[in-house]
Design goal:
By secondary structure, this protein is of the alpha+beta class. 39% of the residues lie in helices and 16% in strands. Helix 3 crosses helix 5 and helix 6 crosses helix 7. The protein is globular.
């Protein structure tokens, strides 16, 4: 009889311990989920008042708000923004890169800092660079907004990413030059309606005009290799180049200007599956 009692007590406490462990794990999972949801909601708020007023709702998606300036590089127009709205994007990035319970992760540090820069200054700096894939740091693209010694990522010196600045050949590249010179963002009619298939690195570079001065501006991020657009490698699950661009931009910026689904629907008028 004593033996049977001991067996019953053993299984009772074993079951209770497993239940408590399961309850603890569920609680941890909920905390992680809630923290992610807070990040997404906070990331979308700063851009809420920056939608192009010409953008229409309903069946007609309105004018195209992006230009493909280099292979996989989409410049996306966020409209006229005040200095406070631009600062809000940077502040959202800073909040989203810091986990209150842990140190910043490697993912968070991929783009450790964001900065708005002059769009014509960016174009002119790239137009004057020497082309090459393994140039010394001193020959990489530098902008007046950078601190001493800071440079752009090396791929801005490569011909596939730099030739548009001095010799625009596509209608999108010409339109981006016009935006840099005049502040008017007017995307030409698409030559092909279907997006390019995924496979190459892609990403976004947000642009806007200053609401007070009408100066054209671009948002850049600083990673381990220098300042660049919010661009990264394709994933096998990406359905198109647009999907790669939206996913990588949301990840690299820690969703400072939108999550993947928001960017897909806002600029490319598609929804992720």
């Amino acid at each position: 009889m004593l033996f049977l009692v001991n067996i019953c007590l053993f299984f009772f406490f074993k079951q209770k311990t497993a239940y408590e462990m399961l309850r603890s794990l569920v609680g941890s999972e909920m905390c992680i989920r809630d923290r992610y949801q807070r990040r997404v909601r906070g990331a979308l708020q700063p851009m809420g008042n920056c939608v192009n007023p010409d953008q229409q709702a309903g069946p007609d998606p309105g004018p195209r708000l992006w230009l493909q300036v280099w292979s996989g590089g989409f410049v996306c127009y966020f409209g006229a923004m005040t200095a406070a709205q631009r600062d809000a994007v940077i502040q959202t990035h800073e909040r989203n890169t810091v986990d209150p319970d842990q140190n910043p992760t490697h993912r968070d540090l991929e783009m450790s800092t964001l900065m708005w820069v002059s769009a014509p200054g960016f174009r002119d700096a790239i137009a004057g660079v020497q082309h090459g894939s393994r140039l010394p740091m001193s020959q990489r693209v530098s902008l007046p907004e950078f601190r001493e010694g800071e440079r752009c990522s090396s791929w801005f010196n490569e011909r596939w990413c730099a030739s548009w600045a001095s010799h625009p050949t596509t209608r999108d590249q010409v339109a981006f030059h016009d935006f840099c010179d005049t502040g008017r963002f007017e995307a030409p009619e698409l030559e092909r309606r279907e997006p390019e298939p995924a496979g190459i690195p892609a990403g976004l570079m947000p642009c806007c005009i200053d609401r007070e001065t009408a100066e054209p501006m671009l948002l850049m991020g600083r990673g381990s290799s220098g300042w660049s657009s919010f661009q990264g490698k394709a994933d096998r699950r990406d359905q198109s180049l647009w999907h790669t661009a939206a996913r990588e931009a949301a990840k690299e910026s820690c969703e400072a200007f939108g999550n993947r689904e928001d960017l897909l629907s806002r600029f490319f008028h598609v929804h992720s599956a």
